[in-house]
Amino acid sequence: MKIKLKVTSHCCDLSLLTPITLDYIVHNTNEICFTNRQIQLHLSTLLLDENGDEIYENDILSDSQGNRFKVIFSHGAFFAHSLNETMPYKNIPLYLLQANGIIPAKLIER
After folding, report:
1. Among 2, 14, 59, 79, which is least packed by CB within 10 angstroms?
2. How many CA atoms lie within 13 A of 67 on its CB side?
3. Tens-digit pLDDT profile for the chain (110 aa)?
């Protein structure tokens, strides 16, 4: 499985080397530690939205009916967490949305 990460700080994309060279991300024998709480890692879904933009964890998507979803990673899979109160299901596996033609959706917030 391919793993792709995006690093952000204050909503700005950074190269992975920037926080490492500034010691914002350090590695010891058991874990990766963040010394700067403004640094966030976002895991890629390897899916593209309708405009060809890559979809990452924590992105906000909108489908053709105007439903809004936040992309989350939980229990080893990506889910679209509904931000609409009227949706009967809160967490929908992202692959089901893709299989039913809802993905590619439109990326509306990152």
Report:
1. 2
2. 21
3. 577 777 777 667 766 666 666 666 666 666 666 666 677 778 889 888 888 888 899 899 887 778 888 999 998 889 989 888 777 778 888 877 776 665 556 666 56
Nearest partner of 47 among 91, 107, 110, judged by Cα: 107
The pTM score is 0.70
Residue 100, sorted as left (phi over 0), alpha (psi -120 to 50) or beta, turns out to be alpha
Number of domains in the chain: 1
Contact yes or no for 83/68 (Cβ under 8 A): yes
Cis peptide upstream of residue 88 (ω within 30 degrees of 0): no
Domain that holds residue 68: 5-109
